[in-house]
Amino acid sequence: MSRAPNPKIFKPMSSKKMLQFFLLGLLWLLFCIPVVTIGAATCSVFYVALKILNDDADINVWKSFVKGIKENFVQGLLMLFVSIITVGGTAAFIWWIIEKSSQSIPIVCVAIGVCFIVLVLNIFAYPIIGRYENTFANKLRNAVALAFTYSRETLRSAGFVAAELAIAGVLFRLNLFAGLASLLFWPSLIFYTIACFMASIFYRVENPVQYDSESADERNQDEEAPSEENPADEITENQENQNEEIES
Questions:
Q1: What tens digit of pLDDT does each residue of 88-102 get?
Q2: What is the pTM of this model?
Q3: Can you tell me the distance from the alpha carbon of 27 to that of 45, in angstroms, rounded to the nearest whole number?
Q4: Range scoring the smallest mean pLDDT among 55-64, 88-97, 151-160, 229-238
Q5: How far is Cα 192 from Cα 50, in angstroms, rounded to an integer?
Q6: Which of 10, 44, 101, 188 could make a disulfide contact with 25, Cβ separation 3.0–4.6 Å?
Q7: DSSP for 118-173?
């Protein structure tokens, strides 16, 4: 396993990386056709995406993607079952609330909270399965632990992904053809968004000492940076000091 990528989120991408992420999205759509491979394909996406963000030399997207599917097929299949159960249960819960429109606000808030938890679990679990070697149960526990430990990144990533999914849903409602055409691009964008946030978290987990020293250096640079003063203000202060000396 290579080192975790640089923690800077949403770094500028070259045209080569954009093409690689676009190809990843297309491969994911292709390997989702058998249905049973959806989980492994999703894990493999992040297996390759983190390599792309890490600037691994001469990465072959196709070969790495197939390798990721082979290595994560079993756990990807288990995670697919978890996703079906959690997403399906949440959808049924939301449908029940819509049918019971007279339900109180607290129940609606609970529904929103459940949706958020399910979204976060699915955001964190697939990248962890794709990157690390561990038992499936430990990976699920680590997904929950990381989500709570890095709550700021969790909220931001969930917010970005929810917004992207909402926009995709709006496109489908406005025009079915436009929605289907957008499927060529939305998976790549969503995977890129999640991979960037997870790369930042993985970097902190794998390089705690280095990350702390880099953060300390950045804070020291900010503190040592000279403040930009207005030259006119400086001249005014000098004149006031001279006047005070003359009066004394």
A1: 888 888 888 777 665
A2: 0.78
A3: 9
A4: 229-238
A5: 9
A6: 188
A7: HHHHHHHHHHHHHH--S-HHHHHHHHHHHHHHTHHHHHHHHHHHHHHHHHHHHHHH
